């Protein structure tokens, strides 16, 4: 079921399903899931903000690094969300909800105990209500990159300055190359 509310969100690379599967984007998602798997072996509901074509949830289903109860893919682009739903249905994904909504308007009512919020779109997501509305104590994963015009991040501490966590469980960087340039992706995992 798709819940609808639409506002524009611009991602930093590729607007096609094919473009969402570039080597750098695959590597950043795999890195994210591996590091979460080192922090915890089970989470409840996972909100994936700016879920695009659902690639993170696809990798969670096909190559699980930790157990989860449910995934909520949150995206503002109806076409991307529909393709995500079709792709995940094709691989037999269970317990995945597709929500057409601006992440800044979420109340995380499905999060519950032991939830996880993933945002790999810090460079492109305007506002900070998405973060402010996350319940205290929730496990949060945030990724950003340098080499963007919108809001470049130059180190993990840039993320933590804007989105402070009460406990940092992991922070690191990964050097990557997209179709246009070399760049560094930064990631922080911790408790709000």
Summarize it.
The chain is an alpha/beta fold.
What does this molecule look like?
By secondary structure, this protein is α/β, with parallel strands linked by helices. It has a single domain, classed as Vaccinia Virus protein VP39 (Rossmann fold, 3-Layer(aba) Sandwich), CATH 3.40.50. Helices cover 26% and strands 29% of the residues. The chain is built from five helices and eight strands. It has an eight-stranded mixed β-sheet with strand order 1-4-3-2-5-6-8-7, sandwiched between helices. α1 (23-39) packs across α2 (55-62). It starts with a strand and ends with a strand. The model is unreliable at 1-12 (pLDDT under 50).
Name of the CATH class = Alpha Beta
Spatial shape: globular
- Strand line-up in the sheet with most strands: 1-4-3-2-5-6-8-7
What pattern of helices and strands is seen along the backbone? EHEHEHEEHEHEE
How many E-type strands?
Answer: 8
Superfamily at the CATH H level? Vaccinia Virus protein VP39
Q: Point out poorly predicted stretches.
A: 1-12
Q: Write down the overall mean pLDDT.
A: 86
Keywords for this entry:
192 residues; alpha/beta; Rossmann fold; eight-stranded mixed beta sheet; 5 helices; 8 strands; 29% strand
């Amino acid at each position: 079921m798709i819940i609808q509310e639409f506002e524009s969100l611009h991602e930093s690379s590729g607007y096609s399903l094919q473009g969402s599967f570039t080597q750098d984007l695959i590597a950043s998602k795999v890195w994210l899931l591996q590091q979460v798997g080192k922090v915890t072996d089970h989470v409840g509901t996972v909100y994936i903000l700016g879920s695009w074509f659902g690639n993170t949830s696809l990798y969670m289903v096909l190559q699980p690094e930790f157990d989860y109860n449910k995934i909520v893919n949150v995206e503002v682009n109806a076409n991307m969300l529909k393709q995500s739903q079709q792709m995940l249905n094709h691989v037999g994904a269970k317990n995945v909800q597709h929500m057409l909504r601006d992440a800044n308007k979420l109340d995380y009512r499905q999060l519950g105990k032991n939830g996880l919020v993933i945002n790999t779109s810090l460079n492109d997501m305007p506002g900070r209500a998405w973060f402010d509305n996350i319940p205290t104590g929730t496990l949060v994963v945030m990724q950003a990159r340098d080499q963007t015009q919108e809001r470049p991040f130059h180190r993990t501490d840039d993320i933590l300055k804007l989105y402070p966590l009460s406990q940092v469980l992991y922070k690191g960087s990964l050097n990557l190359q997209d179709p246009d340039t070399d760049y560094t992706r930064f990631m922080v995992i911790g408790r709000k």
